[in-house]
């Protein structure tokens, strides 16, 4: 039984969805879909705490890695390039 909460990854609209694009860049997209699928199945976020925690941990790891990357290689502003 399909639910409005499931994520249809076959839709071409997904390519234009900025949230999907952002999550895809993190490497955590499959975990995000697992949260959505769990929510669609159980209709209760409390039943999906394992999926939520796994997705959260993935996102935190991405954010920490990105932060370290920016600290090592800060972006240059246009005024510095002149």
From TrEMBL:
<dbReference type="GO" id="GO:0005758">
    <property type="term" value="C:mitochondrial intermembrane space"/>
</dbReference>
<feature type="region of interest" description="Disordered">
    <location>
        <begin position="1"/>
        <end position="20"/>
    </location>
</feature>
<dbReference type="InterPro" id="IPR039870">
    <property type="entry name" value="Coa4-like"/>
</dbReference>
<protein>
    <submittedName>
        <fullName>Cytochrome c oxidase assembly factor 4 homolog, mitochondrial</fullName>
    </submittedName>
</protein>
<dbReference type="GO" id="GO:0033617">
    <property type="term" value="P:mitochondrial respiratory chain complex IV assembly"/>
</dbReference>
<feature type="compositionally biased region" description="Basic and acidic residues">
    <location>
        <begin position="1"/>
        <end position="12"/>
    </location>
</feature>
């Amino acid at each position: 039984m399909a639910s409005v909460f499931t994520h249809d990854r076959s839709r071409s609209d997904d390519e234009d969805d900025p949230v999907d694009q952002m999550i895809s860049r993190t490497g955590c997209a499959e975990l995000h879909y697992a949260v959505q699928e769990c929510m669609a199945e159980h209709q209760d976020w409390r039943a999906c705490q394992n999926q939520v925690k796994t997705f959260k941990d993935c996102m935190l790891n991405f954010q920490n890695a990105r932060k370290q990357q920016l600290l090592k290689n800060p972006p240059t502003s246009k005024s510095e390039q002149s």
